[in-house]
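User: Study the shape:
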Amino acid sequence: MSTITIGSVNCRGLSETVKRIDIFTKYKDLYDITILVDTHSTSEKEKQWLHEWGYVGKFSSYSSKSRGVAILFKNTFEFKIHEETIDLMGNFIILDITIQDYRITLAAIYGPNNDDPVFFENIKHKISRYSNSSIVVAGDWNVVQDYDMDTLHYRSENNPQSKAKIHEVMHELDLLDIWRQQHPFDNRYSWRGPNHKQSRLDYFMITSDIEAFVVSSDIGISYRSDHSPVLINLRFSSQIRGKGTWKFNNSLLRETEFIEKVKGDIKTVIEEYESDPSMDIETEDKQFNISYQLLWDMIKMKVRGSAISFSSFQKKEGNKKEKELLYKISLLDEKLLENNLPSVYQEREGIELELKILREKM
């Protein structure tokens, strides 16, 4: 099956005709499915805008000055929309859709600027109306996932209650931040603001059962907006896979660096959800603004992410080292063809042993 590219961008208003046509043309060339937020569309203009797009599309409109979401399709692939949920306030669209024989729930959201966890609770309930196990949610969330990794030049964390609610929704719907999953150590941002502030407010959340279908994910180059587009490339296989079970790699417990990272993760989660961080008391005496079960789930989710990231990094470094050792062996083999010196042979044996030990660790 061919690759489906889904792109999402906050376009900062498309009321101006010249800009709208330009944006439509640009992203129509790039994506099979284009998600636009902050469109400033109105219900009266939807028919005209759809005509300008030239293909199938869905709009959630509010006013010509604010909000608005759209999901726009090209005719480059087979799809069927079974049911739709359109927000009258211009903040989200949720579709029950089949794409290339694979049925999913596809949602586009424009999160509120203020700290509004109720909004994300509502999104969860709307998505849960459909029985699809596979979910893709994209848009401008107006909330970062990780304050340290996803912000630059911020003085304080924005919308902490919304962030906690999103983490809760991720746990309940089995969602993961696919870009962060594929780029565990990268510091890249999708929004640039005054005073050199930057943050990753735009991203895709997907259920783990379709993670294997994501060929790649990326943050693009901004155009006529202070937001950059975000995108994923999907290739659905003919065989629908069930949700895999993640297993912890016990060998990580021998890695001092990983142990220290986990200790830091636990401390971070506790500090994030404790009711009164200013109180200097023992951890077992602390009170939290979420249940103990959810706190435990948040800790496990954080540690799981660190374990996956650490393992991924180890694998990349191991593959790099393996290539270096194989290259050295190939050079020594050439030397042995010219002159079968014992010293060269011993050096080769030493590198081969190093390679064997490396592969056993991998």
User: Anything to note?
Assistant: The longest helix spans residues 292-338. The CA atoms of residues 200 and 317 lie 26 Å apart. Residues 250-361 form one domain. The chain has nine helices and 15 strands.
